[in-house]
Specification:
Blueprint: H1 2-14, E1 46-51, E2 58-64, H2 69-73, H3 80-89, E3 97-112, E4 119-134, H4 137-145, E5 155-156, E6 162-177, E7 182-199, E8 203-210, E9 216-229, H5 231-240, H6 247-259, E10 261-274, E11 278-292, E12 296-307, H7 323-336, E13 339-342, E14 346-349, E15 353-362, H8 381-384, E16 389-400, E17 403-416, E18 420-428, E19 435-444, E20 447-454, E21 467-479
Antiparallel strand pairs: 1-3, 1-21, 2-3, 2-21, 3-4, 4-6, 5-8, 6-7, 7-9, 7-10, 8-9, 9-12, 10-11, 11-14, 11-15, 12-13, 15-16, 16-17, 17-18, 18-19, 19-20, 20-21
Amino acid sequence: MKKTVLFLWTILMGVVTSHAQNKQLLYDFYEIPQSLLLNPGVKTPYKWHVGLPLLSGNSVQAGSSGVTVNDLFANDGIDFTTKFREKVINGLRKRDEFGGSGTIEVFNIGFRNRNRPSDYISLGMYGEGFVAQFWTEDLAVLGFEGNANNINRRFSLNHIASQGEAVNVFHFGVNRKLNNKWTVGARAKIYSSLVHINSSNNKGYFVTTPGENGILRNTLVANVTFRTAGLSSLLEALDDGGGAGDGIANWLSRRALFGGDLGIGFDFGFTHTFGQNSFITASLLDVGFIYHSNDVKNYTLQGAASNEGIEFVLPDDINNLNDDIWQDLVDVIEEQVPFATNEDAFVSLRPIKLNASFRHHFGERNDRQSTCDCSIHSKTRSENIDYVNAVGGQLFMINRARGPQAALTGFYQRRLGNVLALKTTYTIDKYSFSNVGLGLNIQAGPVNFYVLADNLLGYSNLPDSHYASLQFGFNIISWNNN
């Protein structure tokens, strides 16, 4: 039990936590330095910033697209088996998903280039991870109902799809203001993978059909692969329990600091101003890959088999039954559809993310700077943060095992003086059509604190909520000309 608790705590607080990965409240909230990680071409109104180690950028998200805890365990007088059959077995489809994601920043710093003030340099290290388990619709029906009442139905093995990883990321980015209309940016990343699991693009089926002499014929055609990297050493570290051997702490430090499987990636983004108060932004994140060759263990099930069971001639064979007969049947099936393992290296592509937004500012400020093409050098904080009110929309897309997933967000943002900024969002995605979020950013002198929470309507009854998300962080910021 202690090992299990330690593992879960480590995954949550150590380097990563457990799909959505949409951070619409943080995106383009450019008073918060962490917005640079979502768009390296975002506006940068700071002279320099330093994030508090391990506290500057933490987030956790979890969701279930098809069923909630309340659906199964509500005290409504309905038998659990009935609810499970209706809500899970008959209610979920292969695109329904259970999962979560999270990040934790180890450090994050940024500064303006003295020789070229239009450039803002940022660098740091953070851990991130996600788990995404898609519902195995056909296999769940087969397991719950059996095949007796499903003659001639093909149960697809394509429904097996899962992804998960924990990775440490070292990054370096440059944000450049080209002129008063264009700001562009790019970020390079080095990935050090701790754990990776993946099973996708599986093929095959299981079907029961009428055979000869009234016997049913079972047919299995399979091409299934489950790839892992780092999982075996993690289990060994957990089993060691932090004793004389490796232990979980040594395993984490080794694989997080370039001791895991390595990869490279890039982020790109821009902000474009048109007119006097309108902006469009876009970013493409994690265009990269990881090469897995360290502690790799892959599992495969490939082949085809068909049988009608064991044929007996009664009463002649009644005294000839023994374990060898059943073992011979198992051996034949395993020979035709072998379950094998290998240590072959493989490449995993990062889950590419796309963000795009439009925003329009309105409302006047007493200290608003008049529009000019005069300079890209340091100005006061108020002059660099050019909104009192802002409205707009954002599109988010991410590549997953069953294809791209999208979310659409509308938002309103309000700044109250130089101390407080608020952002509220309404998001539609596969988890919810009523996701209302609220973000709060406080600037107390040089100290910056932000907290962003999604799906606030679900907090009144978390067991009945399909999705929850929380982000928070602390930074020290020196604003331009401060």
